[in-house]
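In this section we walk through a basic example: taking a raw amino acid sequence and producing a predicted 3D structure, encoded as discrete structure tokens. The instruction is simple. Fold the sequence below.
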Amino acid sequence: MPLLVVWLDEWAAACLIPLAVWILLSGLDDLWITLVFCINRRKAFAWPSEAELTGARQRRIAILVPLWREHDVIAKMLEHNLAVIRYANYDFFVGVYPNDRHTVRAVQEMARRHPRVHVALCPHFGPTSKGDCLNRVYQAMAEYEGRRDLRYEIVITHDAEDLIHPESLRLVNWFSREYEMVQVPVLPLATSWGEWTHGIYCDEFAEYQIKDIPVRTHLGGFLPSNGVGTGFAREALESLRRKYGNAFDPENVTEDYENGFRMHAAGYRQIFLPIQRARVGPVATREYFPRNWRAAVRQRSRWVAGIALQGWQRHGWRVPLRQVYWFWRDRKGLAGNLLTPVANLVFVYCLAQYVMAGYSGHATHATNSIPFWVSRACYACAWIAVVQIGVRIHLSARIFGLPFAAGAPLRMIWGNVVNCAATVEALRLFLTARIEHHSLSWRKTEHVYPGAPLDIHRRPRLGEVLVSLQCLSAKELQEALERRPRDLRIGEYLIQLEKITELDLIRALRSQAGLQGAASAGRLTPHRVHRNFGLDST
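The resulting token sequence is shown next.
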């Protein structure tokens, strides 16, 4: 037998023992979560009825959006979400840096056109960190409260690429009566089968949001914020601000994860809203995640650095025993991400040797070098992997359809490579920051907004847009709908009642149609509005 083959056999056998132990341990951990999910999947969730949502008192909500170089997407994001949100009592506070002039101008233009949009200018150049930007936005919100003598009772965080579900704010408002932290699911937008990198996010988020997070909360684990679609009770954030000096951790690059832990440690109640289907798709925040290698590694390296490395540095394992388990699950990727590609190579090599032994009828050096218990452990790992792959295909199919989900096994292999590279990059950044005594900076991902976002959610009704633009109140709209003559459209009727002006109607129709640009709005006339846009019956 060639010496090279003997050496490779011995190397593969030596690697296989620790790899088998680690993969079996991690696989049993994942299998435990899957078993709990299967046992509890039939339990009903207490969703409010439409009448209950409509009748609930609408608490004042502030939506905080931190930005750095988002001038290409922020106007589309605000236009779309202002048009579709089915809630009347809310405002956007958008954080920008003075050295990001294009984004500043884009947000100022939106604030000029929409009374719900407010600019929060950071006092220093950026980028700093997302948590630092959020703290400045939070301060701007407090200053606005002082000037207007009002108070926001709920604070929701969102990003520049988010498509907010029309029902999100109503649900956060409802559940915030009993919980200080309410998490709306987050799901990637669907892409083609061939988009391997984005497909990793589709598979992983479907499994994470449908299975892992509900099981985590069921077993008493703390709920990590997803960073977007997270509603915080104002009093809870104020309590964190008094205790830590800030509402959001400016040092941790995953301030959302840290805030979820802080909330739980302080004794505040948390709830994750399971994914449910509605008239306009799953009730979830939708967005495009990175669609190429470089962007994915950049984003995931931030997740690893913040959750695993900074979390370990800050908290260690000094938490109640029940939370130690969740720290283990959140941090095991440090080892697993690095070992999985090696395990894949060893598996392929051993499989090739096994096939060769079958053809030749003689056991190879590799098969003779592997202890019996290791081979049985490998069989157990293989069966666990088959189960987990089947679960991922099933959960991905529930959101994105079976044809797309069928590619999950291949995307898992690609995901192993991406995660390995991201972990190496996270270790490099973290160790460099420690050696040079500086903080990790905001490694922002370049964002893309859907070309036609109003195709994602249903086209909003004209009355809803008028309310969202604060042209009239929800009560005034309801009264007008009840009294409107059948042969008169709601826009015409509201003008007759002098509840709105023709300019209000033009603005609302442009927003409803997904058009942008204030200049062109001035060229529209009521005649052109009736002829080109028509008037929505409601």
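Looking at the output, two observations stand out. The radius of gyration is 26 Å. Residues 3-38+332-436 form one domain. In the next section we compare this with other chains.
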